[in-house]
Amino acid sequence: MLLTNKKPVLCIGPTCTGKTLTLSDKLLNNMPAEYITHFLMFSARTSANQTQDYIDSKLDKRRKGVFGPPVRKYFIFFIDDLNMPMLETYGAQPPIELLRQWMDHGGWYDRKQIGTFKHIVDINFACAMGPPGGGRNPITQRFTRHFNFLSFTEMEDASKKKIFSTILGSWLGSVPAIQPLNESLVDATIRVYATISSQLLPTPAKSHYTFSLRDLSKVFQGILMAQAGKMEDKVQLLQLWYHESCRVFQDRLVCAEDRDWFDGLLKDCIEQFDCSFDEVVPSKPVLFGDFMSLDDDNKVYTLIQDKERLMKVMEECMDDYNQNTTTKMKLVLFMDAIEHVCRISRVLRQPLGNALLLGVGGSGRQSLTKLASFMSGYECFQIELAKNYGQTEWREDIKNMMLKAGLQNEQITFLFVDTQIKCESFLEDINNILNSGDVPNLYATDEQERILTAMKPVVQDLGHQLTKANLMAAYIRRVRSNIHTVLCMSPIDWFNAWPEEALQAVATSFLNELPELEASPTAMRGLALMCVKIHQTVARKCEQYLAELSRHNYVTPKSYLELLKIFTDVNGRKKHELCSGRQRMKSGLDKLLSTAEDVSKMQEELETMRPLLEEAAKETEVTMETIKKDTVVAEETRKSVQAEEAKASEKARFAGAIAADAQRDLDEALPALDAALASLKSLNKNDVTEVRGMQRPPQGVKLVMEAVCIMKGIKPKKVPGAMPGTKINDYWEPGKGLLQDPGKFLESLFNYDKDNIPENVISLIQPYIDNEEFQPESIAKVSKACTSICQWVRAMHVYHFVAKGVEPKRQALQEAQEDLAVTQRILDDAKEQLAAVESGIAALQATYQDCLAKKDELDNKCQLCEARLIRADKLIGGLADEKVRWKETVQHLDYMVNNVAGDVLLSGAYIAYLGPFTGEYRAAMAEEWLHCFKELSVPHTNEPNLISTLGDPVKIRSWQISGLPKDNLSVENGVIAQYSLRWPLFVDPQGQANTWIKNMERDNRLETIKLSDLDFLRSLENAICFGKPCLLENVGEGVRSCSRTCLVETDI
Which domains can be identified in the chain, with CATH numbers? Predict the structure, then answer.
C-alpha cells in the first residue's frame, strides 16, 4: 500500500528476519505492471558516484533537465544494507546524502555538466537495513524522516521450530521409522545454535565467530541433501545430523579447545536420543559425500565408511584432473586433506554454496578447491594477473564468467585468493556477486538485450510476466545459483596446521619416490619422522624467537614441502657426486693393482714374442725368394699372351672385311626387295579379290599371274591353242586358285625362300623379265595389285643373282670366323694361365706383406712392452704412498655415501627453515636435530653441517673475494641463497649482502632497481625477458602485485 501510494519504505530488523526476502517477493510478484524494480546493495565501500551512476543508467530523458523511467512506468529502487557505507572524515555517508538530496529536492547535480541540476521523477525507494553495529553505521535522521518504518523482529524459538519441523517433517514423511524424531532433532539443532551463539562470541582473533539464522537453516539444508529413504534407523539420521552440524558450526572454529567444546555439546544432544556418542560416532572423521558413485546422473549424498576406497576415488579423480588440464597437480592425499576436499565438495554442491578458506600459504586451499570442483563437474575459474591488469580487465573477466553462468547455465567455481586483490574494488564486486548476483553498471546495452532475450523462455516456464524486472531477476537468480565463490561466505572451512600424521604421510610419499635412497624400512621411517620433527621443532622455536627477540617468523606447510623438495633434489645430486668421487678413487686403486699384474704379464709376453720375431723374419725371406721365381714365369706367359692377341686381332680384321664386302653386294639388291615388299604391304584383300574377279584379264595381268605361278612352281593348265589340235599353257585358272585366299597368298609372297630359288625357275622367268610389257609402269595401267606382284617377281630375280655372287664370300667368311674362334680359344687359355700365375704372385705378395706386418707388429710390441715395463716400475714406485691415502679416501667416501641422507636432510632443513634465524638459534636447532637423528636411526655422519655438506670451497672463496664476510653465518647464508627454491630476501642493515651480490653478478649485467623507480616495471620486464639477475633494493613490508607474481614464480 505504501509503495503503490508512492511512499518510501524502510524495513529495519536484525539479520535473517526476512526483510530482503519479503520486499523482493512483493516487488517482483505482486506489483502492478507499470511498476519496475531495480535492486541495489550497499557495502562499506559503496560511493555516492557509484550510486548516482547506477540510478542514472536506468533513467531516460523526459525533457530538458528532467529524467525518469519510460513513459507510463514507475521505478522502485530497492536498496539492501542501507547503513553499510562507511563514514567519511566528517561523519557523513555520501551515498545516503545523495539519496537525501533527491528526497529533499527531487534530484541531484549532473557531474558531467557542472552546475546543471537533474530533476528525477516517477521513482521511489524501498530500503532494508539492520541495527547499527558489526560494520553498520547509524544514518542521519534528516534522511530517515522521509521513510515509513516497518520493523522485523527476531524469530522466537517456537517460530523456528514450526518452520524447520515442517521442512524436516516433509523430508521424513516417507520413513515412518524415524518420523517421530522430527521435533526432537529440530529442538536439538535450535539448542546447538542458541548455545554456540551465546558462548562463542566474536573476538579480534576470532572475528568470524558470528552465527545467524542462516547457519541454522544450513544444517537442515545439508540434511535434505541426503535421501530420506536411505535412512534405515535413528543412528544413521543422527550421524547425518552430527556431520551437518559440524560442517556448519565446527568448521569455522580455529582451535582445538573450541572444537572439543563443540563436540561435547553435540555429545550431550545425541545422548538425549537414547544413543551413546560412540554409537553415532564410532570413529572420526565422519564424512558424507555424493562423489563415491560412478553414475553422474544418480548422485547420492551418503555416509562414507570405507576410507581406503575414498582415498582411491580421490586419487583417481586427481589422475583424471591431471589428464584433462595443462597444469598438473601432484598432491599427497592424507586424511586431513581428504576431509577438506569433502567439505569443499559439500559446499559447492549446495545451492548458493560459497566458502571462505582460511589458512597459511601452501596448506592446499587452491589445489584442494580445484580438485573438489573437478569432482563436482564444475569449471574452476581464476583471474590471471598481468602487468597492466586493472579494473577494466577485472570487470571483463567477471562479466564473461557471469554470462556463462547465467546464459549457458553452467556451474562455475570462482576461486579468488588474497594475492589477487590488486584493487580494493575487486572485493566490492565480489560482495555484490555474493549478495545480489549482480554488479552495478557491468553490462552494455546490447549485452542487456541479449540477457533479456535469453531469459524469456525461463520466465515463461515459471509462469511470471515477461517484464524487464522479472527477466533480469531470473538471470540474477541463475548467476547466484551457478557461481560458487570460494573466498568469503559461510560456511567457513578453516585450514589448520597440518597434523603430525599428515606431515608424516607427505614425507613418506616423497621418500618412496626416491629409488636412489636405497634405505632400509627402518631408515625410511626414521627419515619421515625426522622431517616431522624438524617442522615441529622450528614451529616451537618461532614462538621462542618471537618472545626473546620480538621477531616474527612463520612456519607453513609450504616450508615443509620445500624441505622435501630440496631433499629430493639435493640427495640424488649429492649421492651421485660422492659415488663419482668414490668410483674415481676405486678406479685409481684398481689401476695400481692391475698395473702390478700387468708387469709380470708383460715380462712373460716379451719372452714369448722374441722367438716369434726371429721366426717371422725367416718366413719373410723364404716368401721373397718364391715371389722372384714366379715373377719370371709370369713375364714369359704375358709375352705369349700378347703374341696370341696380335694374331687374333689380325684374323678378326680379315673376317670383318669379308663380311663388309658381302654386305655391300647384298645392299644393292635389298632396296628393290624392300620396295617390292612395301608395295605388297600396301595391298589389301579387295585389291587381290579384284584381280581374281576379272573375266577377261588384260595381257599384263596374265603375264603377272604366269610369272607368279612359275615362281611358286604352279603347273599350267593345257588348253586348245589357236591352231586346231594344238595345246598351249594357261596359267589363269591355276593363278586364280592362288588368289582364292588373298591373305594367305600375300603371306606366301612375304615368306618366299628367296635364298634358294631353283635355277629352272630362274630360266623360265627370264623371258618375262626381258618382256617390255612385264614392266611395273606398264602393269600399273591395268592393275594396282599386279603392279606390286610384278615388282616382287623382278626383285626376286635380281636378289637371286646377287645372292649367287655373295655365296662364296659367305663361305670364306665362315671359314675365317671358325679360324678366329680357334685362335680366340688359344688366347683365352693363355690368359687364364697368366691370371693364375699373377694370382699366385698376388697371394705371395699378400703373404709377404702379412709377414712384414707380423714382423713389424712383433717388433713394436717388444719395444712397447719394454717401454711399459719401465714406466710401470716408475709408477708403482712413485704411487706407493698414494695407494695408502686412496684406500683411506675410498673408505671415507663409502662412509659418506651410506650416511648422505641424514646430512642432506639437515642441510635441507637449514635451507627451508633457518634462513631468518640467528646463528645461535641455528646451532641450537641443529644440535637438537642430531639427537633426534640418533634416536630415530637416521643415517648421518658424526658432525654434519650445511657448509661441509653442500658448500663448494672454490665457490665460497670466490664469494669471499666478491665481498661476502668470512664468518660461518654469512657463508651459510650464501649456501642457503644458492640452494633455496625461493628468491632470497636479505635483511642487510650493513649492506654486506648488497655489496656481495653486486660484485658477484657484475659480469652478468646485474639489474638494480627500487620499488620507487619510475621505470621499475620496465627494468623488471627486461631482466625477465633477457635472463639477467635482478637486485630489488629497499624492499618494505609490501610489494606490488606484479612483483608478487614474479616472486611466486608464476607465468606472466
Answer: 9-151 (3.40.50.300), 310-495 (3.40.50.300), 679-804 (1.20.920.60)
